[in-house]
Amino acid sequence: MAKQANSLTQLALQKFKKNFWGVFSFIFIVAVGLLAVFAYVLAPDDSQNANQMHLSIHSKKPGFTVSMLRVPGDTIEQSWLGRYFTGIKDTGTEIPISDFTLHGNSVEYTPYVENGGETLTKTIDLSFFDPNVVTLKTLFAQEYVKEHTFILGTDKYGRDLLSRMLIGARISFSIGFVAVIISLLIGISLGALGGYYGGRVDAAIMWLINVTWSIPTLLLVIAITLALGKGFWQVFIAVGLTMWVEVARVVRGQVISVKQMQYVTAARALGYKDYRIVTRHILPNIMAPVIVISAANFAGAILIESGLSFLGIGAQPPVPSWGAMIKDHYSYIILGKAYLAIIPGLAIMLLVMAFMLMGNALRDALDVKSA
Asked: pLDDT for 86-121, tens place per residue?
C-alpha cells in the first residue's frame, strides 16, 4: 500500500512538472513569498511599515533620484529579530534637499523644490549630529547626505512605493495562509463529521453550510470585521471564517463515497475507533481535491482582503496593503500617474492568477483517472 501511494505521488509530481504554467506559477509564488519574508531586508525604506513621508517629493515617477539629509533621532533598542520582522523603529528624519552648507554650529540646507523653483534655506543645529564628522563638509556628506533613487517612484505622501509594495506582499501572503488554515480546520472537521455520521449530524451541518453559503461573502466578511473591530488580525479571522463552506461541502461528499470502501469496512471490523478511521484512513485518501480548493481559497482570500482594504475596513494605515494603495491612488489614473494604482493592481492580479493556474495544474496532476 505504501509503495503504491508513493508511486501515485511520484506520478502526480511528474504530471505537474510537465505543466509549464503550473511550474511557472509555483516558482512565481515562491519568489513573491521570499520577497515577503525578507521584505525589510530588501526594502530601501526599512523603517516600520515603510512610512517615511516626504511630501515635497510626492507622486514622483519611477527612477526619481534626490539627495536626502538624514537627521538622527533617539536610539530605540531593538533585537535583530524585531528589526527583521517589524522594521526599524526610527525616530530620525529624512529631508529631501538640493544643497547644504556648514556654518559654525549649524548646517544650512536648501529643501528640494520641484522644477528647481526658489525656496528659503533652513538651518539645523549641529548638536543633532556626530561631532566627529561635522568639521568637514566631505565627511558630513558621506555620513548624513545620501543619494536616494526611488525605483518605483513615490506615493502621494512621498513614501517609497517599492518598499510599500514589498511589505504589502506580507499582508497578502499572511491573510492567504491564515484564511486557508482556518477554512481547512473548520471545513474538514465539519465535512468529515457530516459525511461520516450522516443522519441528524449531517442535516445540522448542511443547514449551517447552506445558511452560510446564502450570505454574500463580502457582506459576511464586512459584518464579521465590524463585529471584531478594524485591524490586522481581525481581517484574517473574518476572511477565514467565510471560506470554510466549500471545503466542508467537498470533504463531506468525498467522505460519503469513501466510507463505503472495503478498507474502511475492514478497519471497522478490526475494532478501530471512528477518530482513527477518519483521520488515518479516510482523510489521507481525499486530500487531493482539498489541496486544489486550498489554492483557490488562497487566491480568493487575497482578493477579499484587497477589497476590504479598498473599502477602508481592511488593514489600517500606516500598515501597507495593496488594496489600500489602489484606494489612495485610483484618482491619479486621470492625472497622468496611473502607475500609482496600476502597480499594486498588477501585483494582485499576477499573484491571484498564479494561484489559480497552480490550482488547475494540481487538479490535473492529482486526477488519477487521467493518468
From this structure: 888 877 888 999 888 887 788 888 899 887 666 778
DSSP 315: S
Environment class of 82 (CB within 10 Å of its CB; exposed 0-12, middle 13-18, buried 19+): middle
User: Distance (Å, rounded) from C-alpha 262 to C-alpha 365?
Assistant: 26
The domain boundary, picked from 159, 180, 196, lies at 159
Cα separation, 278 vs 276, whole angstroms: 5
Residue pair 323/345 in contact (Cβ under 8 Å)? The answer is: no
pTM, 2 dp: 0.86
* 259 assigned to some structural domain: yes
Cα distances from 285 to residues 38, 231, 261, 293, 360, in angstroms, run 36, 38, 11, 15, 19
Structural domain range at position 235:
2-34+162-370
Assess whether 104 and 129 both reside in one domain: yes
Closest CA to 162 of 44, 66, 46: 44
Domains identified in the chain, total number: 2
